[in-house]
């Protein structure tokens, strides 16, 4: 059971509560969190859809906050009851793969759902790392390209300062407090469908909903090739800093550093 002291020390601002199915899910951005919100919304009965894929994008990204309360919104006794009696789960992903996914999604595309997000961080990164910051006046923010190495440097600089990182690249242990919350199950993105089914079976919901299938273009082997392509030109000194930043996540969740990074040869 989670102690009152531990509960008080953590905000649990990322743990969603589904009282109907007695589930607690820690949201981790870039690890299928949109589809997990779809599933929890469908199970809750609070949306006009029983098929998760039928739930509109607005509900998935915004409306869910009013339909699925966060654990922090409950009193201490109410939270402790849920922590002791509900099925608690989270999903993780190779930290380096997740970083690359965050950069590609947020800085290499102009999705309508993240325009303001991109503009804000583009402005911050350009002002911090480029001498020619006047380009902000000459160009639209939407046309400025943030390089992967710039993004990585920004992330580790913030982490080394002790800053709270954005949810899309914050460390798993900072988001979900696995040493405080004793999760019943920690799924892995590498075998998402199988692990999602295990979660649904554990709460007897596998006949009620089906976890949305990933695109057929996703292949773990291809993911490794893409990682190799984008990380191969990152300086070894920066790679070591990135690894140190995420080292606790690598160790806690048993992820190994990809061989192609060869960090051990650059100590």
UniProtKB/TrEMBL annotation:
Q: What is its EC number?
A: 2.8.2.-
Where in or outside the cell it occurs: the entry states: Golgi apparatus membrane
Could you give a GO molecular-function term held by this entry? Answer: sulfotransferase activity
Which membrane topology term applies here? Single-pass type II membrane protein
CC annotations in GO: Golgi membrane
The answer on whether this UniProt entry bears the keyword Membrane reads yes
Its GO biological process terms?
carbohydrate biosynthetic process
- Subcellular location, principal: Golgi
Write out the similarity annotation: Belongs to the sulfotransferase 2 family.
Q: What is this protein called?
A: Carbohydrate sulfotransferase
The taxonomic lineage of its organism, from the top, reads: Eukaryota, Metazoa, Spiralia, Lophotrochozoa, Mollusca
């Amino acid at each position: 059971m989670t102690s009152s002291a531990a509960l008080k020390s953590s905000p649990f601002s990322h743990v969603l509560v589904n009282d109907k199915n007695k589930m607690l899910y820690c949201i981790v951005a870039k690890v299928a969190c949109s589809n997990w919100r779809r599933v929890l919304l469908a199970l809750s009965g609070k949306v006009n859809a029983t098929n998760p894929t039928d739930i509109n994008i607005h509900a998935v990204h915004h409306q869910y906050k009013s339909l699925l309360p966060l654990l922090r919104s409950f009193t201490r006794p109410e939270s402790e009851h849920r922590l002791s009696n509900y099925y608690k789960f989270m999903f993780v992903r190779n930290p380096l793969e997740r970083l690359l996914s965050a950069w590609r999604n947020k800085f290499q595309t102009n999705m309508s759902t993240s325009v303001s997000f991109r503009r804000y961080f583009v402005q911050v990164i350009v002002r911090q790392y480029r001498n020619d910051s006047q380009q902000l006046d000459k160009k639209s923010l939407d046309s400025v390209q943030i390089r992967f190495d710039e993004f990585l440097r920004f992330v580790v600089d913030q982490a080394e300062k002790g800053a709270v990182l954005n949810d899309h690249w914050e460390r798993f242990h900072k988001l979900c407090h696995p040493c405080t919350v004793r999760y019943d199950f920690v799924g892995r993105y590498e075998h998402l469908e199988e692990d999602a089914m295990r979660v649904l079976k554990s709460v007897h919901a596998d006949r009620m909903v089906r976890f949305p299938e990933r695109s057929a273009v996703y292949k773990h082997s291809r993911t490794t090739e893409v990682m190799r392509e984008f990380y191969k030109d990152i300086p070894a000194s920066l790679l070591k800093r990135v690894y140190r930043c995420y080292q606790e996540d690598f160790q806690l969740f048993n992820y190994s550093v990809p061989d192609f990074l060869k960090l051990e040869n650059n100590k």
